[in-house]
Amino acid sequence: MGQRMFVAVVPPDEVVEHLEEFLEPRRDHGMPWIHPGQWHVTLAFMESVGAAAELELEERLADAAGRRRPMTVRLAGAGTFPDPVAARVIWLGLQDGDDANDAAGGPLGELHRLAVNVRAAASTSGAPVDGKPFHPHLSLARLKRPVEATRWLRVLDTYRGPAWQVDEVELIASHLHEGPSRRPRHETVSRFALGEDARRGARGTWAG
Predict the structure, then answer these.
(1) pTM, full prediction
(2) Buried-most residue among 25, 71, 117, 205 (CB within 10 A)?
(3) pLDDT tens, 191-205?
């Protein structure tokens, strides 16, 4: 059995802190908010990556990232999966951080192309990606049972985070029930720079 892994954009500390401050007065309302240390924007999720596929996966991800350019985005706009009256996931969306209308050549268009390239790299490496279409978002809460979330959407829709430049993606291994309070422990396996020659990233471990 291989490792559960995903490729993601991880917001920088200043973006995380800004969102934490916004959510702080709303934390005692029974919502199971995801720990800030685990906030990320998933580009591709692989349920099982075998040891034989991992090295090729890293090489192909480095190449895929190197062919895409850095982009400026911000967190803004709220939503739910599957819908607001029976929400299982509550999330914030991404917008163009340059305050321009996003077009095919804009930051979100580039983010979609990055996701396509990352998913192709995984599939070619023998690490099948889940079949869900790419919808750029950062999950804030996962619910054990569906809830009516219209009130939360009205609150979260007022949030507009600081812009930041996405200049790398991370390959992360998810170890179920190994983090604090039996949360998953996320291990950053490699980082891959955008817009540069493919390179192997630093390795590290963190628990959120």
Answers:
(1) 0.88
(2) 71
(3) 999 996 544 444 443
